[in-house]
Specification:
746 residues; alpha/beta; 5-stranded parallel sheet; 3-stranded antiparallel sheet
Length: 746
Amino acid sequence: MRGHEHSTNANELSGTVHGFVVQTGSVHGGIHVSGGGAREVVPPPWQLPPSVRITDRTDEIRALEAHRDRATEDGHPTLAAVSGLGGVGKTAVALAWLHTLRPHFPGGQLYADLGAQAPDGPADPGEVVARFLRALGVPSGQVPPTLGERVALYRSLTADRQLVVLLDDAATAAQVRPLLPAGQSVTAVTSRRRMPGLSLDGGHVIHLEPLSPEAAVELLEATLADGRVAAQPEEARALVALCAGLPLAVRIAGARLAARPKQGITAMVRALSEEHERLEALAIEGDHDVRAALDLSYQGLPPRAARLYRLLGLHPGREFGAPVARTLLGGDAAEALDALHDANLLVDVAEASGGERYRFHDLVRLHAAERAAQDESGDERAAALLRVGRHYLAAAGRAEEIIEPGRVGPERDFGRGVAAESVAEEDFGPVGGQTAAEAALDWLERELPNLMAMVRLARPMGAPELAWQLTDALWPLFPRRKLYREWIEAHREGLLAAEEAGNGEASCRMLTSGALGMLATGEHAEGLAMFERAAASFLERGDALGHARTLNYRGLALQRLGQRDRAAEFFARAAAELPAHGDLRAGALARFNLADIALAQERYETAAVEAEAARLTLEAAGDTYNAARAAGLTGRACVGLGRLERAEAELSTALSALRAEAAGFETAHVLGGLARLSERRGQPWQARQYYREAVSLYGSVGRSRSAEAVGAAARLGALESPGTADSPPAPPAPDPSGDDRRGSGA
């Protein structure tokens, strides 16, 4: 592989949007979504996990419902926070309450694990809001890039919709606030910390204490359901006392007893008491008895399940699929997983694709990691973590191939016993009407916390190649799902890893892909500096094609920095050198960029010539998206030249193609061109219609402050002003082309 190549379909810079336009208003049971004339109803999301049996929480649930009644009477949304020790049943109480509300809240249910105890840190509110927007029917490409814009769209969508929202395991009130819906919705928050700050937002805060002895015995009896509690009441009370009244510990002890129907409760009390004395050093936050119960459960596991338990404690993320377990054990893991699940050591997490997925309770995960540190050697732990990393690399690489089959990448080091094809077959597959590419993208996003954790761990564990290879395989996800924070972080770590490994080619890939992320987030100067570093490295390595590609990239950065003349020089060099080195498509994109600058400078003839030449080459290369962009640019140039018939033909062709791609930002550009065409023809009413739709599209993709959006809004305002609605059309204003360049020279 020479240079740094991205496929035709890569959305390398911010702004392109794929999906439908969300129309908000009164929403009853679904969101009506339109795109190119098609309409569909997005069903309400029902994301709450199933409820579990609870005991002795009647007062708390009654208090929560009383708070909801008061908030409803006052016309306010309902916000409640449930805090307490890990394992005390906070989520169970919240779910028991919220599930009773479903008949009264037809707008759906949203759920997010905010990960206060996650090894890689709490969940980013911006990414959680993005997931909520997608659940409410906003296509991935139309999720705005910034937290403020996402929150504004989220509250617009929920203003007239009755929703139930559960924000589980929150770290702080500040993390919660951007996730609160508007309107008459109900939000419950759970946290190990008391959160008095939410009282300022109208929240009702309750704190759960451990179960009373009577309630804990009732829970133990329900777990066993075989008469032993009634036959041995004193022993049952002693056992739940050792469990400190925590439902988690009671269920674990009960599960162990249930697996031994002939064993008396006395034996469990004796064993747990002895373990309590021996495990003082393993206590976390004073949860001595829970730790003892976990150790007893661990000791009762079959050897293969016990080893899987230890090794899963090394997994860097909170959730994992069954293939990870198979990778760790080197073969079938179904029986071991069943044993862990039956012992209440693993939670089965429902997955839309039907795949098996699990997670540890936080205390259980910490216990598993402690057992790994005690019972596995350092070399065994390192080898297990490396197997997990290579598993994720194989699966991510397969997802990349499905999403961008034409992308040329480096050889990947999966390690022995890991096959990318078999991993992908079992890790993800299309759901419902999904395409294979959509399913692969969903898998990458779902596993992103695990993948990012491996990127961070790879270099410290002595495997720098794993860090940059994982980052490179993740490329298709970042621009498509607008995951800017992870985009930047992964490429920074990947670059350090590539440099540590002494791999010049990998360093160039990390620099160029990472610099595109800088441009997407507005860090244009830093992006330019990274492109220049890559260019120098390509020259040093004698890679002429790679260096030619950086010409186009540097031109984009300079254009963003307002240095149009210098940018044009780089685009002109790229347009000449890229075809000479065999990359006709990238050369055509450089000519498109030249046309873009010419249009902004009102050099309409040059813009039309360059855009038409770019379109012909892009069509021959099969790049229909960028060919449509070029046709739209040609049409806008023709408006400026007064060639109105050709302008109409080019703009109409571009509009149809870009609507089919659901590319909102570029579609808005074309609508602006049609509006100016209508003005030239003396059709102000038609121009207003085009401008209105263009302004709406810019807003829907989070670009309402762009120069193009501001210009369209200004022209619309002028046409709607009294006395000017039917005035003669004004000359067309300069129209810089959009900055969304999926495939722009990569």
